Amino acid sequence: MFLRRILISNFKNIREADIVFSPKINAITGNNGEGKTNLLDAVYYLSMCKSYFNTSDTYTCTFGSDGFALNGTYLNEDSTEETIGVALKQGGAKTVRRNGKQYQRMSDHIGVIPIVMVSPSDTMLVNGAGEERRRFANALLSQVDREYLRRIQRYNQFLAQRNRLLKSDAVSGELLETISERMSPDAAYIYRRRKELCRQLQELMVSVYDKVSGGKDTVSLKYVSDLERRMEEGEGDGALLSLFEENAGKDAVLKYTSAGVQRDDIEFFINGHHVRRCASQGEQKSFLISLKLAQFSLVRRIHGMAPILLLDDLFDKLDMNRVQLLMRLVAGDGFGQIFITDSNKVRVGQIAGAVSSEVSFFKVSNGEIYEKE
């Protein structure tokens, strides 16, 4: 499946756009701040029903507009079309339609059009708080496991209820127990899927990073969870409930839930050393690109088709040898449609043209998008 055409109205700094894409490589150039990344974010939004960069839709509408609309036409391998439309009115509800039919739950759309973004903001996966890595794991698993998406949403709803109850002046012990019992099986499922995800990503990363680093370094991931000891001891669906009982006094004093899968983290290592503390900027970028390409491979393996790949400012801080190597990796037979942004039009032209003859070039200037010959 690939995105054949996109219509954009009032999305960030892009007021109006109607663009036809190549099924293979789409190279997007322009100065920084002109809207290259916003175009990629619009493509991402059509798959995930949210921005890759903003947790809220507050800043997705063009300044002065009352909402935005995105419409994408996709072609399947059998040449049949899929249309996806997303619309949001300021202060109103967001609607998502597939082939003209509105979803009752937006979550039902997640995973329909697999997608992977690689961006400079991914450095937050290394340098940011655990929330960044949980968000990464949740977004990835939500594309490949609908049950995971259902359970993480339900867990978070119950967690919010539990925290409100702990903050109240009159805590109902019976209600607190009921909520905790409802959360515990979901926590066990989330734990198992995240642990398995880390195992799968590490396995896939090894071969990619080996190529990127020239075979001189090894990478590894470690899943960290409050539930680990109890799950490994076989408590299963009751592990979270047991953890809550142990932390009951602490939660009562703090007035929030102090333990659970909402505190999970993933630690990254190169040669046994923490990437955050010991890796150079170039090594961090190589690690993150390898992680994202492992994500790509995992999604492709599960879905049976290549996700759309968005490479935002990929070439910054990488030498040309690594850039060419990475482009050969991503332009192989297992990859599908690729979008690349770069402020250096000569560089992106040389690299894209060297790996595929099916390349479309676009220039972005002040939110206006032009196709180049």
Oligomer status: single chain
**SSE succession:** EEEHEEEEEHHHHEHHHEEHHEHEHEE
Strand order of the largest sheet: 2-1-4-5-6-7
- The H-level CATH homologous superfamily of one domain, spelled out, is P-loop containing nucleotide triphosphate hydrolases
- Uncertain runs with pLDDT below 50, 5 residues or more? none
Tally of helical runs: 12
Beta content:
15-25%
Level-2 CATH architecture of one domain: 3-Layer(aba) Sandwich
Reading off the top of the CATH hierarchy, the class of one domain is best stated as Alpha Beta
Roughly how much helix do the residues carry, as a percent range? Answer: 40-55%
Return Rg in Å.
22 Å
Based on CA inertia axes, which overall geometry fits?
globular
CATH topology name of one domain, in short, is Rossmann fold
Biggest sheet overview? 6 strands, antiparallel
What does this structure look like?
The protein is α/β, with parallel strands linked by helices and 373 residues long. The chain has a domain at 1-114 and 305-373: P-loop containing nucleotide triphosphate hydrolases (Rossmann fold, 3-Layer(aba) Sandwich), CATH 3.40.50.300. The chain has twelve helices and 15 strands. A six-stranded antiparallel beta sheet has the order 2-1-4-5-6-7, covered by helices on one side. Strands 8-12-13-3-14-15 form a six-stranded mixed beta sheet, sandwiched between helices. β1 and β2 (14-20) form a beta hairpin. α4 (146-167) packs across α5 and α5 (173-213) packs across α7 (239-246). The longest helix is centred in the middle third of the chain and has 41 residues, at 173-213. The model has no long low-confidence stretch (mean pLDDT 91).
